[in-house]
Amino acid sequence: MKRLLVITFMVFLPVPVVAQTVVQQFQLKQNGEFASVTEPTGPGSSFSLTVSRNSDNGGIASLNYFASSIAPDFNSVTFTQIVGAIPAADFTGQNTQNLTLNFSTGDLDPNNSFSQTCTFSFIDFTISCGPAAAGTINLSFRQNGAQRTRVLALGEEITTGPITVRIHQRSDNSTANVTGSVFGTSVVGGNAQVGVNHSSTIEFVRTQ
Fold this sequence. Notes:
By secondary structure, the protein is mainly β.
């Protein structure tokens, strides 16, 4: 039954049940190289990350990180989200053959980013949020060309707790190998991609 509740939470969490007030909102353009990876980190836990250059925004880059973990007793699920602009120097590489992300949570600008960890209880159906823990992400991506895809027009909206992410993407993509660490957890392989964004946008909305 608790497994069913976990699935129900993940499916219906985007649906607002009360009127909410927007407390933070910003949008970033994405033009240029990007890299992404999705990987499980243990039983009931996983993370996904996308980092992209933003050539139309003063050369900065953007990061979208999401991690979730279901408690062993299935009484709660905890998720961490870090989104927003990061310094261009954090995401390096001349092309999609080799891209490197060296990010610290201290690099975030509070004016156009946010990070938080929330826990949703399946016992009383409440959610509590607070600042995400500090840490670093160090990843190296190498294009392998095993599969190439072209995204012609992607429109996606994902709401998790108080955070909504809206993505509009046009890009050329390739599979990639990735190595490194994410907040102390080693990453090898994973479902990784690299590519080039074309006039894509990512928008973040936080409510209360």
